[in-house]
Inverse folding.
């Protein structure tokens, strides 16, 4: 039987340099619980380093976490990768790490990148700047996500670092029969290229607890990766919610 | 050449100014952050159509002193705030990157 879940598959943690340091597991979990959101993805820039702890802590709040990452490609396009479990997401993140240049920036000026533990305490700081492009081109980034059995979604396509903003269109890949895109604004629904291959989602892309909100209602049997794929492929099971 | 002198000769709009008495020794044109990070010379003016807040981190890493946003585009508030914090001068022009390069050349930047 299908049940209704409130989902948001693009949320940043305190590991992202541009996110507030208050994006810790207990703070995020509490806020999501208040809002009635129960199925999310943690997608930090170029790293899945905090997904394990978020998965564990948010479970106690009744929230299921899809382990994810937001890759920054050479074209300055942001791409979400969603994975079946924490181990795969971490393996992907470790693999991706070599593609991030050694560049460091002053955290005082460009944001702290903090690893966190189950008690909401910061443990260590990531030294490489996670806000920079990796050396992966878009095609290579998509293939790599597929290689780890993941799903890729084009982030906020109509905004800066979104694929339409950067390249002018959504590339329809030869290797997939469906392309998942995330839109930020309701108006984009009317403007986006009409194509039967496109599946559209909406997310908060929250960088602070105040930005969390209900963005999608999804009908699924249960909150697991296989069902997530089915929902994304069947737009009738996805309802986008707007302010 | 002094940044103030370049601005006067080329007629670029000053969005936020740090120290206009800085010496500009070189220039770079690029819209991909990775390309600019790898190739922009220090003490240069960077011509681009990118206005995302991350351009300030890129300018800091490379030692770019001023960013010139071309084609009549505008910076978002967040980018302007970050520029003030980091002492980077933000400029804007209606000209394309190509035409703006010509102005800089005519002003004497080599």
């Amino acid at each position: 039987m299908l049940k209704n879940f409130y989902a948001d598959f693009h949320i940043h943690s305190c590991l992202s340099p541009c996110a507030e340091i208050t994006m810790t597991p207990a703070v995020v979990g509490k806020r999501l619980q208040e809002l009635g959101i129960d199925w999310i993805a943690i997608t930090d820039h170029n790293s899945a380093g905090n997904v394990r702890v978020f998965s564990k802590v948010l479970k106690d709040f009744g929230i299921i976490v899809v382990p994810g990452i937001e890759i920054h490609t050479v074209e300055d396009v942001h791409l979400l990768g969603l994975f079946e479990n924490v181990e795969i997401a971490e393996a992907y993140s470790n693999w991706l790490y070599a593609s991030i240049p050694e560049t460091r920036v002053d955290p005082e000026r460009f944001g702290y990148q903090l690893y966190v533990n189950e008690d909401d305490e910061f443990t260590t700081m990531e030294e490489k700047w996670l806000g920079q492009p990796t050396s992966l081109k878009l095609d290579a980034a998509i293939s790599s996500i597929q290689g780890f059995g993941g799903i890729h979604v084009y982030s906020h396509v109509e905004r800066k670092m979104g694929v339409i903003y950067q390249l002018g269109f959504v590339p329809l890949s030869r290797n997939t029969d469906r392309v998942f895109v995330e839109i930020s604004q309701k108006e984009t629904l009317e403007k986006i290229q009409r194509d039967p291959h496109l599946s559209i989602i909406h997310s908060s892309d929250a960088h602070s607890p105040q930005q969390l909100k209900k963005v999608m209602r999804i009908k699924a049997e249960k909150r697991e990766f296989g069902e997530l794929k089915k929902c994304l492929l069947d737009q009738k099971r996805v309802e986008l919610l707007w302010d | 050449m002094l940044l103030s002198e370049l601005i006067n000769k080329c007629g670029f709009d000053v969005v936020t100014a740090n120290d206009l008495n800085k010496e500009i020794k070189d220039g770079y044109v690029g819209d991909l952050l990775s390309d600019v990070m790898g190739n922009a010379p220090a003490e240069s003016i960077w011509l681009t159509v990118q206005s995302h807040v991350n351009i300030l981190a890129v300018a800091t890493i490379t030692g770019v002193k001023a960013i010139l946003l071309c084609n009549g585009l505008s910076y978002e508030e967040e980018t302007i705030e970050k520029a003030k914090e980091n002492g980077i001068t933000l400029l804007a022009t209606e000209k394309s990157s190509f035409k703006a390069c010509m102005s800089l050349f005519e002003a004497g930047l080599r």
